[in-house]
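Hi there,

I know you've been waiting on this one. I reran it after we fixed the sequence typo, so this is the corrected version. Both the input and the resulting structure follow.
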Amino acid sequence: MSRSVSGETTPTQPSPIEGEGFSAEFRRIRLATGVTLNVALAGDPHSKPVILLHGFPESHRTWRGVAPLLEDRFRLVMPDLRGFAGSDRPQEVDAYQMKIIVEDIFALADALSIERFALVGHDWGGAAAWAAAIRGNPRIERLAIVNSPHPVIFQKSLIESAEQRSASQYINAFRAPGFEKLVEAMGYDEFFEKSFGAHVDLALIPEAEKRQYIAEWSQPGALTAMLNWYRAAPLVVPPPLVTVPIPDWVLAAFPKVRIPTLVVWGMRDRALLPVQLEGLERLVEDLTVVRLPDAGHFAPWEAPEPVAQALEHFLEREPAATAPIR
């Protein structure tokens, strides 16, 4: 059964995404949540639907290397999340509460008449995917995460792991009032190098991609919207050497994720350390972990082939099958 369309869709001319043999149709889709998202669509509309969510500071183009490897088997829906790239950019911090982001996901599925779907997320898109799955909505059939921590493990590690706390101090910088002005003062080219240079060989990013990033970031209100994802998050990120208690919500009983879940992790991630994989099996009922030793935080385009291979195997797996943690 399919839900009726709940938002207006406006098709545009097909626009290429980097990747041999891959192009996407773009639509601006008005959601019942009040925002309009720019959405890239690829694959057969009659195939299994997969919604892929990008992270910071990116867009649907996060999947530029993965999508060409999956589009012949799945219906791929790749939005620019609210605040990013070609989508609406509300300026209020409260517009980026996670419960609202999760509502966007289901509203997007409604607008495309998708009843049940697999959900894939990287970085902040992964955080939204975790949150949606934790709520237990049966419309999500499978969950796949690429380098994005479970909220309970992440919050605990920010307090208990000196290494993770140190690696996450950028969050406090991003939350600081006026950080946008600092970026504008340093210049977007330098911000590009600071955003990616510590994580990946910049030579992996073609010049055209770099220009695309900078063009998106320099739109009016874009930086504020992107940074508001950090400002709206309830995460406690203590300064180094400061002792703080673990928040009550972490200590309370937390719902398990009960759908089949794949976690793909680039082990060279310098922002989200391997501690994020510890204890996941206690929070996820049916868990498969695939570690990528030669990839870092931006694994979807650093290592698109192994990421796509892991996703393909997982998304096509029979529902009754089980897979070991490895």
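Quick highlight: The two ends are 36 Å apart (CA to CA).

Best,
R. S.
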